Every structure is written in C-alpha cells, then in structure tokens.
Amino acid sequence: MALMADLQRFLRDRSLSVCNLPQKGRSLFTGRDFVPGEVITSQEPYVCVPNNSSPESRCDGCFKTNNLKKCSGCQVVWYCGSSCQKSEWKLHRHECKALSTLEKEKRKFVTPTIRMMLKLYIKRNLQNEKVIPITTTDDYSLVEALVSHMSELDEKQLMLYAQMANLVNLILQLPSIDLKEIAENFSKFSCNAHSICDSELRPQGIGLYPFVSIINHSCAPNAILVFEEQMAVVRAMGHIPKDSEVTISYIETAGSTLTRQKSLKEQYLFHCECTRCSNIGTPHDIEESAILEGYRCANENCTGFLLRDPDERGFVCQKCTLLRSKEEVKKLAGDVKKVSENAPASPSAENKQDAISVYKAMEKLQARLFHSFSITLMRTREKLLKMLMEVENWREALNYCRLIVPVYLRVYPATHPLIGLQLYTQGKLEWLLEETEDAVSSLTKAFDILRISHGTSTCFMKELSAKLDEARAEACFKRAN
Ligand SMILES: C[S@@+](CC[C@H](N)C(=O)[O-])C[C@H]1O[C@@H](n2cnc3c(N)ncnc32)[C@H](O)[C@@H]1O
C-alpha cells in the first residue's frame, strides 16, 4: 500500500497518471501538455545485460567494447576496468559464484536473457535482505505487476520457458525458487523487456524497465524511447496535450499494416487498433501496402503502384493501367532470390568487396522488381551503405544515402530519429566530399530532428552540434573566398 501511494506521488510529481483501459490494461496518461522533445519520464534499469555475442563482447557495467578483461571467477562476464567491476560487484558476486560452479560445457547456454533472469532473482533477494535499497521505481513489485500472457502461449513456447527456468534453477540453486514463476518471468521479458540502443540506435544489450513498461504501443506514437547509457528516456515526439495516452512504438513501424500487426501479435500478443491500424483495408492503406511491399510499374518512368489483376494475369499499374505479367514478376523474383543466396548477412573484412558486388547486383534486380519506396530495396541499400562506409568508399556511400533518405521520409514520422541519423550520415559524407553547402543543410535538418528524440545535452548531440558549427564556418569561409 505504501508503495502504491509512493508510486501515485511519483506520478503526480511528473504530471502523469496510470489508468486501466479495458483493451490495453495499464496505460500511462499525461496530466499536462508536453512540448516536442520534452522528457516525459526516465528510468534506470531494474536489471540489464549487454549483448555478448562473439566476436564482440561488451563490458557488463558500461557496455563498452574496448580494453575488456574476462572476470577471472566465472569466465563469462567482461569488464573494461576496475571501476565497472566494482560498481557491479554487489550483484555479480552472487552470479559469479553460481556461474563458476556450472560445468564449462553448459556455460554456452548462458545467453543474455538467461543472465538477465539470474540478475533479476539475485537483485530481488538482495533487496529483500536490504543489501540494495528499494525505491519507488526500483522495486520487484513493479516486475510482479507486468503482463505475461502466460495463458495465451502455445505448448512449444511453454516448454522452452520451462527448460530455461530449469537452467536458471540449476545455476542459482536457491532453496525457495519457484520454477513456474521463473517461466512466467521469461514470458514477461518477451513482452516487456527493451533492447538498449546507443545514440545511433544500434542494439547494445537488453534491460527491464518496469515503470517504462507501463507505456503501451501505437504505430503512430506520440513519444519515443531512447537510451542515455543504460537509462531509458521517454520524450514527446510532438505536442502532447493534457489527458492524452502516452504511446511509443514497440516495433519497426516501416511496413504495411498487416506486417506490423503480425509482428505485434507474435511478440506482444495483442491486436493493434491505433489510428494507422484502424485504416486497414481502406484505399489509402491498400495503396501504402502496395508501395512499401509491392512491385513497380513495367514502365520505368511511371511511379504508380501495382495491384493484383482480377483475371490473375499478373499485376496492374493503378496509374497507367499497364499490366506486368505473372511470369515476368516470377522470373525476376527468382533472379533476386538466386543472387540473395550468395549475399552474406555479416561479411568479414576480407570478403567485403565481394559482398558489395553481390549486394549491388541484388540492388539492381530489386530496383527493377520493387517499387522505389519498397522496404526490401531500402534494406539492401542500407546494407550497401554500411559496407561502403566500412571500406571508405564515400562517394558511392553518399549516393546510396541519398536514395535512402526519401524512403525514410515516406515511411517514418517526420521527427523519427532514423531520419535524423540518416541525414547526419549524409551530412558527414557531403562534408567529407567537400559539398559543404549540402552538408550544412543535411546536418541542420539532422540536428532539428535529433534534438527532439535525443535532447541536446548528450555527448552525441554535442558532437553533432559542433560538427554543424564547423561546417557552417567552412561554408561561410568558402562563400567569402
Ligand atoms: C509493455 S506492456 C504495456 C503495459 C500493459 N498495458 C500493462 O498493463 O502492463 C505490453 C502489453 O500491453 C498490451 N498493449 C500494449 N499496447 C497495446 C495496444 N496498443 N493495444 C492493446 N494492448 C496493448 C499488450 O498486452 C502488450 O503485450
């Protein structure tokens, strides 16, 4: 009861409230207007772990990748130095002891999700023993309140969680541990845990933020969740009036309504009825799906979108009425598939040039098959951009970057950080290639978007701001000369 009163006070102080909505369960509401970029709430993780997939390991404290040393006790966890090791020791002391007794063979099964569960129980025990203080938002009772959807899981999923719970039990060997509760907590992780990303939205680890987890999903959200180190920060993406529900997006929102709904159903077990999803089946929604996930017109100069021909002969352009035959589409799709089978998902440094050639061939074929705003084509270009940056081919990288930005502008809301980040990359490339005026324009747009999602006080934003100032000064100098 005291905790509930604490939570109510905590919410009131931040002009927020939690309501129970029949279709959604707990939902976070605003008690005043919020302006674009304003922090609505933030929270440190109850528990978090880095993604420690080889070859890249991360420090357990700060998630950095440099100067790492393995914990000599358990040989599982990495640290960048004594400061991180010390700050983690209260918790890791217990985990280390438990992991050390685990057979070496079994240690490879200790995935980040398993580790997060180990840390969850260790922290709960330490809080019960008052070794770690309990605060309003750092409290296991908030974990207990999370939705699990246990009763909706199929046999296969339940079996997997039971096996994972057994492993946790084997490692921790706590006398009072309840296997059913651990399995249920794995299910809670699946629909409540967040992927912790750096400022450039690259995943670094996973974390449980039981207060932030009260926020529901929308495919047209009014807020965004970003991370400052490991702290989750929720910012308003636009003006949010008083008494509105705060929503974030749980998924990649670039995709047709059917694709978005499928991924929400699979992982979060609900049917989304947000403003975008309630358009399903309308002419606008059909057009959008055909553009994002469909084929291009046979006439190269036409920008129309294609729908299935009622006589099943193929696909008809809705702008110029030209028919693209089933056979032609099938042949081209087969060619794309053949090339894509040779495209490595993560090419090594040695075969990067070969991989670039394969992806370029794939991009050419996809550009003939798909609409120019196709998500599949966009993903191939993103991959090419990344590889070209890695081999320092700035000119070609810039060309792909310029093809990606218009697609982002179409598939994401205007203040989405992915647009800002892509413009930031474009600006840096333009500057490097001495297209200074263009660089100033791209960096300015990037800054205007990213200051809403990222704020202005992080190192990342300070660096962007400094680059923009420098580019402006250089452009001024060039103009004067
Ligand atoms: C991270 S929790 C959000 C808080 C949750 N409403 C609660 O009561 O704890 C995610 C779960 O909330 C529900 N949810 C989130 N967004 C929703 C939405 N737009 N419509 C319906 N249910 C939603 C789903 O059950 C989903 O698995």
UniProtKB/TrEMBL annotation:
<dbReference type="InterPro" id="IPR011990">
    <property type="entry name" value="TPR-like_helical_dom_sf"/>
</dbReference>
<feature type="domain" description="MYND-type">
    <location>
        <begin position="59"/>
        <end position="96"/>
    </location>
</feature>
<keyword id="KW-0862">Zinc</keyword>
<dbReference type="InterPro" id="IPR046341">
    <property type="entry name" value="SET_dom_sf"/>
</dbReference>
<dbReference type="InterPro" id="IPR001214">
    <property type="entry name" value="SET_dom"/>
</dbReference>
<protein>
    <recommendedName>
        <fullName>MYND-type domain-containing protein</fullName>
    </recommendedName>
</protein>
<keyword id="KW-0863">Zinc-finger</keyword>
<dbReference type="Pfam" id="PF00856">
    <property type="entry name" value="SET"/>
</dbReference>
<keyword id="KW-0479">Metal-binding</keyword>
<dbReference type="GO" id="GO:0005634">
    <property type="term" value="C:nucleus"/>
</dbReference>
<dbReference type="GO" id="GO:0008270">
    <property type="term" value="F:zinc ion binding"/>
</dbReference>
<dbReference type="InterPro" id="IPR050869">
    <property type="entry name" value="H3K4_H4K5_MeTrfase"/>
</dbReference>
<dbReference type="InterPro" id="IPR002893">
    <property type="entry name" value="Znf_MYND"/>
</dbReference>
<dbReference type="Pfam" id="PF01753">
    <property type="entry name" value="zf-MYND"/>
</dbReference>
<feature type="domain" description="SET">
    <location>
        <begin position="14"/>
        <end position="251"/>
    </location>
</feature>
